[in-house]
From TrEMBL:
Residues 166-304 form the Hedgehog/Intein (Hint) domain. This is Hint domain-containing protein. It holds the Pfam family Hint_2. The lineage of its organism: Bacteria, Pseudomonadati, Pseudomonadota, Alphaproteobacteria, Rhodobacterales. It comes from the Bacteria. It comes from Gymnodinialimonas phycosphaerae.
Length: 349
């Protein structure tokens, strides 16, 4: 079965404080032990992600797990990393996994992405990059030191648990000053309605197509499920605005952002699998509240979590057009964003 893994190439990652090996590349059967305490120090090596240029790698497999030492996992396409080209059908592996912690105490699971190199007896020790376990948009922050606290050899993790993009599904009707317009028909410069400032121009729009399976399958809100006029489909972590007594009672705010997936226990909300789905990103001058099928939903937030889902080509285009993106990415979201446990408590009330 085919699936995609989003990974960051090794050349865009800085690793310091290792014990043996070189960067992500290890010398102990590709176990990641050269990064983790007590082999390094009491605190572990430090990994810093220097870019949001995640690359989508399509993999063909005979099962639903991306694991170590599995010869059925092969590249669908020819890929190039670190100046080396790997042909389609090359074997790929999840060589090792590490748990890292940022300065705020948030933890992330990173998986070493390895492509077997023909004729290299130490191929297990060569790592081409890192992939990330988490929900859609659940990537670690960029430019922040991540300290390794543990390692695991031979991970075998469901492909559906790897971090993936955030966006609107094709066909979603967006409110504009001229009426409802399908998101795929919006163009740069078109005006859309925002709850904060009325009409604002679209600064950039991008899209990507995925199999509508597992982590890529959209969340569908049946007509009326959340005040929507037609069926609304969003990626799992696309945030909707929760207003009213729940927001005020639980969080002391008139409105808060809640990811679409957290509404799954509500009547009329479900996961839709099958076929393909095309997701769209809409960027304005800031993080704004748009109307999608009549529902208050977020525009693209130019932060680390959002940008990382775009891929290298789209990210390069954005930075070329808007060099101020790096500054904007440090801004907070327009409203408080709920964590999973907070969202569950509010929506269950």
């Amino acid at each position: 079965m085919p699936y995609s893994i989003f990974m960051l190439p090794e050349e865009l990652i800085t690793v310091t404080g290792t014990n043996g090996g070189s960067g992500l590349d290890g010398q102990t059967q590709g176990s990641g032990v050269h990064l983790a305490p007590p082999n390094v120090s009491s605190s572990g090596a430090v990994i810093t992600l220097n870019s949001n240029a995640w690359e989508e790698i399509e993999i063909d497999d005979d099962d639903a797990n991306f694991g170590d030492s599995d010869t059925s996992q092969t590249l669908v396409n020819t890929e190039t990393f670190g100046g080396q080209t790997f042909p389609a059908n090359s074997i790929v592996e999840a060589e090792y996994a590490v748990i890292v912690e940022d300065p705020l105490g948030n933890q992330y699971q990173l998986v070493a992405f390895n492509i077997r190199q023909s004729g290299d007896s130490n191929s297990y020790g060569n790592v081409e990059g890192l992939a990330f376990i988490g929900p859609q948009g659940g990537f670690p922050p960029i430019g922040v030191p991540l300290t390794v606290i543990s390692n695991e050899e031979g991970p075998n993790i469901a492909a559906s648990t790897y971090a993936t993009p955030i966006c609107f599904a094709q066909g979603t009707l967006m409110t504009t000053p001229k009426g409802e317009v399908a998101v795929e028909d919006l163009r740069v410069g078109d005006l859309v309605h925002t709850e904060e400032n009325g009409a604002e121009p679209v600064r950039w729009i991008g899209h990507k197509t995925f199999p509508a399976k597992a982590q890529f399958a959209p969340i569908e809100f049946a007509p009326g499920a959340i005040g929507n006029t037609r069926a609304l489909r969003l990626s799992r972590q696309h945030r909707l605005l929760l207003t009213g007594w729940r927001a005020e009672l639980f969080f002391g705010d008139e409105a808060v952002w809640v990811p679409a997936a957290h509404f799954l226990d509500w009547p009329g909300v479900r996961v839709v699998e099958g076929g393909m789905v095309t997701y769209f990103h809409v960027l304005l001058d800031g993080h704004r509240t748009l109307l999608a099928e009549g529902v208050e939903a977020e525009s693209l937030h130019p932060g680390d979590v959002a940008l990382c889902s775009l891929g290298a080509t789209a990210e390069a285009e954005l930075f070329a057009m808007f060099p101020e993106i790096e500054r904007l990415s440090r801004r907070a979201t327009s409203r408080p964003s709920l964590r999973a446990i907070e969202a569950r408590a509010a929506l269950a009330a």
